[in-house]
Amino acid sequence: MRLSYGELQIAVAIVFLVLALVIAGVFAVVARRTVSDVPLERVQRTGYWLRRRWLAFLGALLVVVVGSSLLALPYASGERGRTTVVVRSGQFFWSFEPPQVAAGTRVRFDVTSLDVNHGFGIYDPRGRLLGSVQAMPGYHNKLDLTLRESGEYRVLCFEFCGLNHHAMQGVFRVVER
């Protein structure tokens, strides 16, 4: 089962809220129990014991949260089953060969420029930036993505390339299977 980005945010918020309540509860219990003086050695021994376990718990939680969030990244992995889309840029255009792929396709964008440096930035249909790479004359830079959602993906130039830089946009289509 894959969580959407919004569901993942809600899950992280709930985990944070639960942990905040647990911490507040621990502080409340400690505050209620401190009615008399306690020998310093006992406080230090108990404090170090709690600190070690708390840090181990936080470390494990960090590994779980970071590890689970990495599963939701749109970047493709591996070499097999990937469609190469050749992207050429020039003042002030983008060209794609092939101009579209099926949804769920692992894509490698092979990006180059015919004239000056350009910045290739690709946005999903909802307007979120998925990735960027430089388009440079004489070089072929690669960007690997898995495009799961069908629709029009906008491509914008990220590097000033001349007077019409603001109008340098392209559209790459992802169609249903």
End-to-end C-alpha gap: 21 Å
The top level CATH class name of the largest domain: Mainly Beta
**Overall geometry:** elongated
Written as H for each helix and E for each strand, in order along the chain, the element string is HHEEEEEEEEE
Beta fraction of the residues?
Answer: 25-35%
Describe the oligomeric state of these chains in a short phrase.
single chain
CATH fold type of the largest domain: Immunoglobulin-like
Number of discrete domains: 2
Just name the CATH architecture of the largest domain. Answer: Sandwich
Radius of gyration: 25 Å
Number of helical stretches of at least 4 residues: 2
Number of DSSP strand runs: 9
Q: Residue-averaged pLDDT, rounded?
A: 86
CATH superfamily of the largest domain: Cupredoxins -  blue copper proteins
> How is the biggest beta sheet arranged?
5 strands, mixed
Q: Percent helix among the residues? A: 25-40%
Strand order of the largest sheet: 3-9-8-5-6
Quickly give the structural class: alpha+beta
Poorly predicted runs of 5 or more residues: none
